[in-house]
TrEMBL record:
Isopropylmalate dehydrogenase-like domain location: 5-348
GO molecular function, one term: tartrate dehydrogenase activity
The EC number(s) this enzyme carries: 1.1.1.83
Source species taxonomy: Bacteria, Bacillati, Bacillota, Bacilli, Bacillales
Top-level taxonomic group: Bacteria
Cofactor: Mn(2+); Mg(2+)
This protein's name: D-malate dehydrogenase (decarboxylating)
Known catalytic reactions: (R)-malate + NAD(+) = pyruvate + CO2 + NADH
Amino acid sequence: MKHLSIALIPGDGIGPEVVAEGVKILRTIEELDPELSFSFTEFPWGCEYYLKQGKMMDADGIDQLQNFDAIYLGAVGYPGVPDHISLRDLLIKIRRSFDQYVNLRPVSLLDPSFTPLKDKSDKDIDMLVIRENSEGEYAGAGEWLYKGRPEEVVLQTGIFSRKGTERIIRYAYEEAHRSNRTLTSISKGNALNYSMVFWDEVFEEVGKEYPDVETYSYLVDAASLYFVSDPERFEVVVTSNLFGDIVTDIGAGITGGLGLAAGANINPEMKYPSMFEPVHGSAPDIAGKGLANPIAAIWSVSQMMDFFGEEKWGKAVLDTIKGLTVEKENLTPDLGGKATTNEIGDRISEKLQKLI
């Protein structure tokens, strides 16, 4: 039997609600598969914890998480806690401490009625964005000089190492090669004359090892336009930390909203635990009302299963989600339905049992 120990960080706002539904699906898988089992340990970290304790997580929090197989995160963010604290002192701290240098964001249209784009089908919008997740523009390097004075200057430095840039680009080439898809690099070499010129050169260098992979390269502004006007040109996409953050939100916009946006923060070598999460934020204005869409959180369970070599379950969960989208009455209000968060989880669990 394969056993996976999972650290739960439900976090803030709607985080606990959607994580509960993801755990429900994992429990369902456990019931259906005698070869799989899960154990869960919950941690109370997040913004509400910060308001009480003055820190986003325990001082030894990384040590506490070290021996888990995976981390399942709900959402982070709450009024009264600056975003740069909530993001850097929990989410980014975990990503960097565990070298989760690959961020996987599927951008796939589950149902044509979900997209605001005219005449686009699920065949037109089906891509995987691979975002560098450990350095780049989010490295946190810089300086704040002469604060509060007329000569005040701030420096925000992007870090693009040979190791970090090459490994994410190579990961993307491997994925494109494995899945027989095209690979598109998104950068901004015309304006960022050091970091992005370097990125483009590494993309070309690594590409020589993969002559079978058809490649394209776009500036981020043009790519943002094409995400909306011509999304079918993208299959596998690789880009930097900041640009990946931006274009995947565009991806969410063209596929039905952030309630459908799943994400995986991967350490491919499995030296450290990887982290799986919906990326919709904490939405404190609807917390506790049963309005939150748990599909992104459940989709990230599918990503978790794929990562651990349980592709059968990864596909089963995603197929079940796709099957649910035609049941308009069984969708949350953001998708035009009237179902509650808990009802969505129950229905996916029910359909999953019938699928297997």
